[in-house]
Design a protein that fits this description.
4-stranded parallel beta sheet, alpha/beta, 13 helices, Rossmann fold, Dehydroquinate synthase-like, alpha domain, 3-stranded mixed beta sheet
């Protein structure tokens, strides 16, 4: 097991990465502060791991669970109420600990529920997808979607710990694995050229699920994110760079309908669009853009927008993004491979050219 630390003063917490961690009751129990737990999971993960985690806890804690429908289209306030219904039906006090057992949607919803229930109760992240292990479980961003915009209702709320059991990746389908690799590649692009080059050399092994390579990719991704979150927890500066490709990608997710395209797939396309605009600004070369696309394709990810996405549609959806300030869309762009910047002084005409180029 490898242990990393998210350094946030009194709210610091560990990230555990390793095999067989779901069954380690003692590891989990040391981060549960009260007498009761409520495990939040979904219909896909529940048959695989819920019984195992419940068994690890039931001797020492009063346990309840809530099984949500699986999919981004269910990440909304209506479905979130199922968590509150279970907590209130069980008469759980502020001493309850919520456990998010699942991917990014489960983690976001359980975390937001924990932030809200009786004005805040502890929660633990137990991510079961590659995307959630390398990104969404770390850093305390919790949210649900609205029909008009992704992740527009939420809170910054840090977990007690993150327990990433790499054995859970064995049951992940290929598309979900590729979706997670998009976020892994993102870390190399924004500020870790050595990692990007390592990914180019090892992408075939990662797609083939070689355990040592996956463990290394998860650890390096989590370390990169932990360092950035420790520097800028609430996204006033450096943390915004983690949104490379996300303004374009969130527009695709919202425009296509939540659940039609996976988050990592949308982010992969968004990163290509950001690279294209960076090339038009004169920062990247055509060779750089081709190199980025080649790695994403090798990871099994799309690099073209889906049918139905128009330039006008992109602009309308991007204008509701959380990174809009004073009416200007702020974008994470690339000065070089491995060097991202937040920019609001790109040429609007060049953004229009990029959107037109990717219009379908």
């Amino acid at each position: 097991m490898k242990t990393l630390q998210v350094a946030l003063g009194e709210r610091s917490y560990p990230i555990y990465i390793g095999e067989g961690l779901l069954a380690q009751a003692a590891l989990l129990a040391q981060h549960i502060q009260g007498p009761s737990v409520c495990i939040v999971t979904n219909t896909t993960v529940s048959p695989l791991y819920l019984e195992q985690v419940m068994a690890a806890l039931s001797f020492d804690f009063e346990c309840a669970s809530v099984v949500l429908p699986d999919g981004e289209q269910y990440k909304n306030l209506d479905v979130l109420n199922q968590v509150f219904d279970q907590l209130l039906t069980s008469r759980f006090s502020r001493e309850v600990t919520l456990i998010a057992l699942g991917g990014g949607v489960v983690g976001d919803m359980a975390g937001f529920a924990a932030a809200c229930y009786q004005r805040g109760v502890p929660f633990i992240q137990m991510p079961t997808t590659l995307l959630s292990q390398v990104d969404s479980s770390v850093g305390g961003k919790t949210a649900v979607n609205h029909a008009l915009g992704k992740n527009m209702i939420g809170a910054f709320y840090q977990p007690q710990c993150v327990i990433a059991d790499t054995d859970t990746l064995k049951t992940l389908d290929d598309r979900q694995l590729s979706s997670g690799l998009a976020e892994v590649i993102k870390y190399g692009l924004i500020n870790d050229l050595n990692f990007f080059e390592w990914l180019e050399q090892n992408i075939v092994g990662l797609v083939a699920r070689e355990p040592a390579l996956l463990a290394e990719a998860i650890a390096r991704s989590c370390q990169d994110k932990a360092d950035i979150v420790a520097e800028d927890e609430r996204e006033h500066g450096a943390r915004a760079l983690l949104n490379l490709g996300h303004t374009f990608g969130h527009a695709i997710e919202t425009g296509m309908g939540y659940g039609e395209i996976l988050h990592g797939e949308a982010i992969a396309i968004g990163m290509v669009m950001a690279a294209d605009l960076s090339r038009r600004e004169g920062w990247l070369t055509e060779v750089d853009v081709t190199r980025i696309k080649a790695l994403l394709i090798a990871a099994g990810l799309p690099v073209e927008t889906p049918a139905g996405m128009t330039a006008a549609g992109f602009m309308e959806l991007m204008s509701v993004d959380k990174k809009v300030q004073a009416g200007v869309i702020r974008l994470v762009l690339l000065k070089a491979v491995g060097q991202a910047i937040m920019s609001d002084d790109y040429e609007p005409a060049k953004l229009a050219e990029t959107l037109a180029h990717f219009e379908h």
